[in-house]
TrEMBL record:
<feature type="domain" description="ArsA HSP20-like">
    <location>
        <begin position="323"/>
        <end position="384"/>
    </location>
</feature>
<dbReference type="InterPro" id="IPR040612">
    <property type="entry name" value="ArsA_HSP20-like"/>
</dbReference>
<dbReference type="Pfam" id="PF17886">
    <property type="entry name" value="ArsA_HSP20"/>
</dbReference>
<feature type="domain" description="ArsA/GET3 Anion-transporting ATPase-like">
    <location>
        <begin position="1"/>
        <end position="301"/>
    </location>
</feature>
<protein>
    <submittedName>
        <fullName>ArsA family ATPase</fullName>
    </submittedName>
</protein>
<dbReference type="Pfam" id="PF02374">
    <property type="entry name" value="ArsA_ATPase"/>
</dbReference>
<dbReference type="InterPro" id="IPR008978">
    <property type="entry name" value="HSP20-like_chaperone"/>
</dbReference>
<dbReference type="InterPro" id="IPR016300">
    <property type="entry name" value="ATPase_ArsA/GET3"/>
</dbReference>
<dbReference type="InterPro" id="IPR025723">
    <property type="entry name" value="ArsA/GET3_ATPase-like"/>
</dbReference>
<dbReference type="InterPro" id="IPR027417">
    <property type="entry name" value="P-loop_NTPase"/>
</dbReference>
<comment type="similarity">
    <text>Belongs to the arsA ATPase family.</text>
</comment>
């Protein structure tokens, strides 16, 4: 199954490009689902039809779905929310305010990812195209499963054991109800499902496609997105430059816009070396409906296969050559001074700008020590070697 996520800065037309890509996939004979994880659903507007919380067929082999976040929230978070409400109620918090406080931050996007998992595992689709939220929200969302995983491995088991052992005492001392086993099970279930989503989206059949417009601010954000998505282990397979003014005889004002866009597009080609850069010309009318969206995608991808699986290894890999073991993490567009690296027991903490990833080292690297690190050709390379005995150990030997 092919999974393709499209994201970009708000307003660049990612929903239109995602819709066109899905329509083109269906026209090629693939049973295709177009799923929106953006809270501001617009897929119904793009196709000019009513779209509901279940897959809606809008053309032969083409289905569109806008997730009902409230329904999924009740199914996945109700047990935890019920406990939190009891705690706030015992503290005298107004019921209406308590309900607002117990809503999971980013719940709509998170639960849309859980719906994506269900659809992928259903086996009903050949292709799933995801119309993601704007890049900032998408980056936070895609970092969530790994961050929650760290909490579940390091902190959650201790909390569960403490509460189980001291629940009667804690309840009397704190004056609030302690969580029962079903609450912990609900959190564990949510973590397991998000972890599975992460594995699916980092797999070899999944990739992210960036949509941008030829504007300096938009391109700068797309560059950062490529770096950050790679940091978290997601493949970026291409860039779509949308709303490009066509070359034509025009007055000075329009000619100035064309020239300005061409300068930015030249920077896009230089910035995203190694990735295909497709262009979508500004059209005389907004593409609405299956046929118009399919035609747009046909022009964008031309002779290329929009569903081609990215070649090569993923952003994260470990290689061995002789005595050297190297952990490699693709970090395009960064230099050594942009990366902060720290080793903490069995974890490697990699920080790039405002984003940080805690990498749990493979078992084969845990017993080794870091021998050095460098950034070369857009890749962080961390070298490991056998731990050397301390001087005291050497003398006693």
């Amino acid at each position: 199954m092919r999974i393709l996520l499209l994201t970009g800065k708000g307003g660049v037309g990612k929903s239109t490009v995602a819709s066109g890509t899905a329509a083109l996939a269906a026209a090629a004979g693939h049973r295709t689902l177009l799923l929106s994880t953006d809270a501001a659903h617009s897929l119904g507007d793009a196709f000019g039809v009513e779209v509901g919380p279940e897959p809606t067929e809008v053309a032969d082999r083409l289905f569109v779905q806008q997730v009902d976040a409230q329904l999924r929230f009740q199914q996945s978070w109700a047990e935890v929310q019920g406990y939190l409400l009891s705690v706030l109620d015992s503290a005298g918090v107004d019921r209406l305010a308590a309900e607002e406080l117990t809503v999971l931050p980013g719940a709509e996007e998170v639960l849309a990812l859980l719906e994506l998992r269900l659809q992928v595992l259903s086996g009903a689709w050949d292709v799933v195209v995801v119309d993601c939220a704007p890049t900032a929200e998408t980056l936070r969302l895609l970092a969530l499963p790994e961050a929650l995983g760290w909490y579940m491995q390091r902190v959650f088991p201790v909390q569960a054991r403490v509460v189980k052992a001291f629940k009667p005492v804690l309840s009397r001392a704190a004056g609030v109800p302690m969580p029962g086993g079903s609450v912990f099970e609900a959190v564990e279930r949510l973590h397991a499902e998000l972890d599975e989503v992460c594995a699916l989206l980092q797999g070899p059949d999944a990739s992210v496609r960036l949509v941008l417009t030829p504007e300096n601010v938009v391109v700068a954000e797309a560059r950062r997105s490529w770096t950050t998505l790679s940091l978290y282990g997601y493949r970026v397979d291409g860039v779509v430059a949308n709303r490009v003014f066509p070359h034509a005889d025009a007055d000075d004002w329009r000619a100035g816009w064309v020239d300005a866009q061409q300068q930015v597009l030249a920077e896009v080609e230089e910035s995203f070396v190694g990735l295909p850069v497709w262009r979508s010309e500004y059209r005389p009318a907004e593409p609405v409906g299956v046929a118009a969206l399919r035609d747009l995608a046909s022009d964008v991808y031309a002779a290329d296969d929009p569903l081609a699986v990215p070649a090569g290894d993923g952003p994260f890999r470990v290689t061995r050559s002789g005595d050297a073991t190297v952990l490699r993490l693709r970090l395009p567009l960064v230099g050594r001074s942009d990366v902060d690296l720290a080793r903490k027991h069995d974890e490697l903490v990699v920080t790039v700008g405002a984003y940080r990833r805690v990498v749990t080292l493979p078992a084969g690297l845990v017993r080794l020590e870091v021998a050095g690190a460098r950034v070369e050709d857009g890749e962080l390379q961390v070298r490991f070697r056998e731990a050397r005995p301390s001087r005291a150990q050497g003398e006693s030997a």
